[in-house]
Amino acid sequence: MSQNLHALILAAGKGTRMKSELPKVVHPILGRPMVAYVIDAVKTVGCDQTILVTGYKSELVKKALDSSDLHYVEQTEQLGTGHAVQCYVKNCATKPENLLVVCGDTPLISVDTLQKMIEIHRQQKPAITMMTLMMNEPGNYGRIIRHEGSVKAIREARDCSADELNIKEVNLAVYLFDSAFLFDNIFSLTPNNRQQEYYLTDLVEIAVSKGLAVATCIEKDEASTLGINSRQHLAEISGILQKQILDKLMDKGVTITCPENTFIGPEVDIEADTTIHPGTMLSGRCRIGRDCIIGPGCRISNAVIGSNNMIEYCVISNTSVADNSKISPFSVIEGNS
User: Is the pLDDT confidence value at 1 over 60?
Assistant: First the structure.
C-alpha cells in the first residue's frame, strides 16, 4: 500500500457548548456521526490511511464508527491542536510522505477543495499547504498574516492586534504537511499564548523562519467550512446536508412533494418516478424502486422496497418488500417478515 498520504482527523474534544455527555464528533447528522462525513471526504481524495485523535470518551467514538480500517491515537490531555499532532507523531509507526490534518467537526468539508489543495501541495512541494477563506466578518477565526503576498504567520483572533483583526483572510484549520518538516519541528511548539496551548498554527512561522515555503488553497464556499460547536450549528448543517440529498434525488427524477417535511438519510437510494409524500422518514441503508408512492407518514429504515408499491402510514425496517406488493396502511413490517 502506498504510504504517500495519510489523514489525521482531530476528534478529541468534548464540545462543552453542546451540553452533552457525548463526544462532539459522534453527534448524529441525518443518522450518521458528524465525523463520518469527514472520514468519507479524506478517503475520497485518496488518503491511504485515516487516523483519528480521540480523547474524551474515546471508546464511544470507536463504537459509533465501528470500522476496521480506521486507526486511533489517544490525546489524554486537551492541550491544543499542536499537542494533538504531537500525540500522533509519538505513536506513528510508519511516517507518510505527506499528512493531511482536518477537524472532525466540519462535515461539509469540500472534497473538490481538498483535491485542489493536494494538487497545489504536490506541484509546489512546500513545507505546509493550508486552506484559507476570505470572510467579510472573520469573527474568531485565526487571521492569515502576509508580507508582500507570502504567508508569514497565522494569528489566533484572541492574540491579534487591532490592525490584524481587520484582516479578512482566515485560517480554516485544514493543513497538508510535508511529513519530514512536520516530524522535525512539531516538538518545537511552545504554549506561549493566552490559552497556554500548543498551537499547530505556530508551525507556519517556524517554516518561514527556516526559509521554507507555505502555500495556500482558497476555499470559495463559506458554507463548506462551517464547524459545529452548538446544537444550533448541528441543526443548521443538518438542514444544508438534507437539502443536498433531496436536490440530488429530485435531479434523478424522484418527486418529493414537501421537502421541508421529509427526512431522507445519506445512504438511501431511490429510483426515478417514485413519489415521496410528507411525514416520511427514510434512514439507514434503504433502496426504493421505480414507480412507488411512499407516504405520507412512513418510517422506513435499512430496507429494500421493490418497484410499483404504494406504502402509506407504515413502519418498515430490516426487511425487503417485493415488486407489486400490497401493503395495508398502518402496517408494521420488521425483521424477516
Answer: no
For Cα atoms 127, 132, 137, give the angle at the middle one, nearest 5 degrees. 150
CA distance 37 to 105: 9
Q: Is the peptide bond before 296 cis (omega within 30 degrees of 0)?
A: yes
Residue 20 belongs to a domain with what CATH number? 3.90.550.10
What is the distance between the alpha carbons of residues 324 and 180, in angstroms, rounded to a whole number? 61
Judge if 13 and 51 occupy the same domain.
Answer: yes
Catalytic residues: 17
- For residues 140 and 277, membership in a common domain is answered with no
Residue 71 cell numbers, joined: 486507526
The tens digit of pLDDT for each residue in 99-114 reads: 999 999 999 999 999 9
Same domain, 158 and 289: no
For residue 263, give the nearest of 22, 28, 24, 23 by alpha carbon: 28
**CB within 8 Å of 315: residues ≥ 6 apart:** 298, 299, 300, 331, 332, 333, 334
The residue type found at 200 is L
Distance CA 248, CA 251 (A): 5
Q: How far apart are CA 197 and CA 195, in angstroms?
A: 5
Q: Using N-to-C axis directions, what is the helix angle for 231-252 and 34-44, rounded to 10°?
A: 50
